């Protein structure tokens, strides 16, 4: 390792609107030597980064993900060469973003690093659709969960029954593909089939879309609207608040 080892910043980009970058994220993007990113920060933010300092460590041309080991090794290699590296992640770097694993890898390799929080899509996504994640009149908790797991598997780490019992808002990330599975689990757990559900696709991107339904109808809505990742699923009474504000939100 050279004496002048660089530094890695694990930076959250926020949900995609460049105005929702933190001041620190923006400053670091301007001053970094290299930006390692995937597609989640969105076209507007990525478009502001000069091509010659961007390295895409997201999905490769063949549709496969760049292995995490590659990204880990690349961060270390660049820092050891004295570079200032921004590892740019969508939303917040440690909310389902493998930021935790990357921190440990950097620490084990004695690479100086810093985490720069970002606005997570788990909160900004619903807000962009006029949905508050809590509401003092009727929701006192909110849970952020991954929908990526197969809910019928015994070893699923998400306990949908327990979540239904909280009576609070459930925000699901990576939850487009497995929507039929977990909405069925929540109904089985006794949740009202008329509970409002919203899907927010590409929240805060120029082509954001929102689709709404209920626990019973949302799978059909997803299919008829063709909702695709990245999207946030919000399950709970708060999703119904959208109807009360949408006219003003869209007129803004
Ligand atoms: N660290 C990120 C989440 C990474 S997991 C964050 O804090 O936001 C990837 C998932 O995030 C996607 O499958 C999707 O559910 C969600 N997501 C991220 N950005 C999004 C956006 N702009 N609109 C909708 N969903 C988004």
From TrEMBL:
GO terms for molecular function: uroporphyrin-III C-methyltransferase activity. It comes from the Archaea. Signal peptide: none annotated. The keyword Transferase applies. SUPFAM superfamilies: Tetrapyrrole methylase. PROSITE patterns: SUMT_1 (PS00839), SUMT_2 (PS00840). One of its GO terms (biological process) is siroheme biosynthetic process. It is an enzyme of class 2 (transferase). Keywords: Methyltransferase, Porphyrin biosynthesis, S-adenosyl-L-methionine, Transferase. InterPro entries: 4pyrrol_Mease, 4pyrrol_Methylase_sf, 4pyrrole_Mease_sub1, 4pyrrole_Mease_sub2, CobA/CysG_C, Siro_Cobalamin_biosynth, Uropor_MeTrfase_CS. Residues 7-218 form the Tetrapyrrole methylase domain. Pfam families: TP_methylase (PF00590). Its EC number is 2.1.1.107. Belongs to the precorrin methyltransferase family. Homodimer. NCBIfam families: cobA_cysG_Cterm, PRK06136.1. This is uroporphyrinogen-III C-methyltransferase. The lineage of its organism: Archaea, Methanobacteriati, Methanobacteriota, Stenosarchaea group, Halobacteria.
